[in-house]
Amino acid sequence: MAEIIRSIRGMNDILPEVTPYWQAVETALKEVLSGYGYQEIRFPIVEKTELFCRSIGEVTDIVEKEMYTFADRNGDNLTLRPEGTAGCVRAAMQNGMLNQTQRLWYMGPMFRHERPQKGRYRQFHQLGAEAYGFNGPDIDAEMILMTARLWKKLNLTGVSLQLNSLGSTQARLAYRDVLITYFEAHQDELDEDSQRRLHSNPLRILDSKNPAMQALNEAAPKLIDHLDDESKQEFEQLCQILDSAGLDYEINPRLVRGLDYYGKTVFEWVTDHLGSQGTVCAGGRYDSLVEQLGGKGAAAIGFAIGLERLIALLEAMDSLPETPTIDAYLVAVGEQANQCSLQLAETLRDQIPALKLITHCGGGSFKSQFKRADRSGARWTLILGDDEVAQKVIGVKTMATGEQETVTWDALPTYLSK
Ligand code: ATP
Ligand code: MG
Which residue CA neighbors atom 28 of ligand 1 most closely? Predict the structure, then answer.
């Protein structure tokens, strides 16, 4: 026998017993987004590699070691999108959408060649939102309040908000020197990753997940003490809006985000309930990206939610949403019954459009069909034999109580609508 082909490591099937939760979560998220005037945008999963190198940054984990890059048959260098922001900006630029303000969202798979573990996969899913053409900090605050509302809508607890400002490009460059001087003085305490980043991307050292780096990072000079006046003022305004809206947050001076395009406001929603993969939602301002990609500068801010982590957290907090159940399962035994069961089902679907009805297919005895009905979780089993067909009636068994009644075909829609 031929060997069974298995899926790629870190790329998971999402099976029918969990897709109802995904659907319910996605629907809830979309409702909140559309309530703030965000519109969906869909852009390709594959883009030119250059797009990601130029936006995310050459010296980032993603570009250095996580991208799925390949040569197209005509020799083009292409990459499976590792995140959505770059493609979203590209699409907005290309389609002339940046002449006016935009509030956009997208949802779909992303690809990163990371070491698979709980909460970290090679194909994972993000819901992202981006706003273009707003200088902030009001839009920053709105976006953060909107994420808080997403959690409220999902009855999600156990997440907390961390905030920081990365300042202007100039402020960040000046701080970079301060940081290099500090880490150079402690060079022997740096782990391998940090050694490598010392001169290429020293801010990223602060983001290290290595516990051995914790003390050194905590004692490092803080970016928030080196902010330019404008960023400082905007950050204070942002905090004031969040304060007056009654939203709790913690200012985390070591929050730098892993991607190069961020400046000014950055934020993360984090949890202690998912082990070390604790960031559920992450975002920030990236005003310089459009220009970096060759467009006319446009203010921009966005965030992305890791849907696997969000759903894992809902499960951990015992807050998975209600999912729809089957209303009725129609069993049919006998020549006449078999002949008219599908037709009866179609009539019922016309009469009650929202009805979730499974029609038994493939024959079998009443006993075996009842077993299926039971397993389907249906509220009612509808029972059709030749006698029922002759009298234009049907047996209706309420599964929770085991009670069974005979109902005429005419009365059935009313019965099932209650
Ligand atoms: P992390 O620090 O956890 O590696 P990141 O900074 O690389 O995250 P972003 O690029 O900001 O993550 O992506 C936004 C969100 O997408 C993350 O907060 C997380 O919830 C989710 N995410 C990122 N990478 C993965 C992955 N490999 N598997 C599952 N979810 C992921
Ligand atoms: Mg990462």
Answer: 120
**Alpha-carbon span 88 to 93, nearest angstrom:** 9
Instruction: Provide the terminal-to-terminal Cα distance of the chain, rounded to the nearest Å.
Output: 53
CB 376 within 8 A of CB 356: no
Burial of 13 (C-beta count, 10 Å sphere; 0-12/13-18/19+): exposed
And the tokens for 200? 């290429």
Give residue 309 CA to ligand 1 midpoint distance, Å. 9
Name which residue sits closest to atom 21 of ligand 1, judged by CA: 306
8 token code pair: 């790629």
Atom of ligand 1 nearest to the CA of 257: 6
Give the C-alpha separation, 139 to 150, whole Å: 16
Q: How far apart are CA 240 and CA 223, in angstroms?
A: 20
63 in contact with ligand 1, CB cutoff 6 A = no
Ligand 1 pocket mutation, candidates 56, 83, 126, 280, criterion most atoms within 8 A of CB: 126
197 C-alpha to ligand 1 centroid (Å): 20
Q: Which of 67, 124, 268, 273 has most ligand 1 atoms within 8 Å of CB, for mutation?
A: 124
Q: Is 75 exposed, middle or buried (0-12, 13-18, 19+ CB in 10 A)?
A: exposed
Average pLDDT of the residues in 322-331: 95
Task: Determine if ligand 1 sits within 6 Å of the CB of residue 81.
Answer: no
| Residue 228 reports pLDDT greater than 70 | yes
The pLDDT value recorded for residue 261 is 79
Contact 165, 264 (CB under 8 A): yes
pLDDT tens-place string over residues 199-208: 888 988 998 8
Q: Measured between alpha carbons, how far is residue 108 from residues 45, 81, 305 in Å? A: 9, 10, 11
**Spatial distance between the Cα atoms of 260 and 376, rounded to a whole number of angstroms:** 50
pLDDT tens profile 348-369: 999 999 999 999 999 999 999 9
Tens-place pLDDT, residues 76-118: 999 999 999 999 999 999 999 999 999 999 999 999 999 999 9
Whether residue 137 has a cis bond before it, omega within 30° of 0: yes
Average of per-residue pLDDT values in the chain: 95
Q: What is the pLDDT of residue 159?
A: 97
